[in-house]
Amino acid sequence: MRSALQKSPIPHTHTFLAKVLKNPVFDPSWHFHSEYQLFAVLRGRGTRFIGDNIKPFKEGDFTFTGPNLPHLWRSEHEGSQEEGSTWCEGIVVYFHSSFIGENLLQKEEGIKLRQLFKKSLRGIEVSGKTAEITRKMLLNLLTLDGFDGVLELLKLLNCLANTKEIELLASPGYTNSLKEGDTERMNKVYAHVMKHFKRKIAVSELAELTNMTPTSFSRYFRVHANKTFSEFISEIRIGHACKLLIEKKMNASQACYESGFHTLSNFNRQFKAITKRTPLAYKKEYLVK
């Protein structure tokens, strides 16, 4: 498994790196790095983890994550090696804020950029017209050389700094407490849960997987995930239910049992607690968009 902290992918001769990702899955390992990251999903679906935020991802998603914010994109087709419709494709851009210069960021002209960079420490999801515009800018960055690329990146960041079509992802109190060894342990947990979340998963099962006692695992998980293990399982199941409601056009009862819940009343309660709306209201809101 790769190390959580890596050597910067940005060449020493450049201020940023833009590249296309085309693989069976996006980077499925829980990790973090010192660069800012812009990321647009062109193809692929699954579950996205940013800090303590868990959401399904799909084509068109655009995110901006700040330095050392743990993240991973786990494809629903993970394990498929044959190139085809199940492969994931996206555009990623890495950069350091130093390419702008600390002097500018402290001036009046740099206030909004400075605020944007601060927001990115919690992870940002971009939506609406802004997401469409910035996706095109990312595509442009793949073809631009020299200072033209730097100007396009600045325009993109300025667009993000001046839009209201953003949502902050990790909770306000989230802090990254992970060390390099922790990422391997958390990856084991995430992989196991994503494979088995439709059935009952006991804490003792994960404790054995991570060579810990149930009490130690519960305490460890809460510290590093910023939520209890039961809350984590519920968010995974509700995220899956959201995909079933929209993509598979299931009703609430079908999505409930297909997502690992045993009673419709508990499903409805958990769904509203996590999404702030009922399953029916969620479907209606999505169809209006």
TrEMBL record:
Positions of the HTH araC/xylS-type domain: 187-285
Entry-linked SUPFAM superfamilies: Homeodomain-like, RmlC-like cupins
Domain of life, per lineage: Bacteria
Keywords of this entry: DNA-binding, Transcription, Transcription regulation
Pfam families, alphabetized: AraC_binding, HTH_18
Any one Gene Ontology molecular-function term assigned to this protein's record: DNA-binding transcription factor activity
Protein name from the UniProt record: AraC family transcriptional regulator
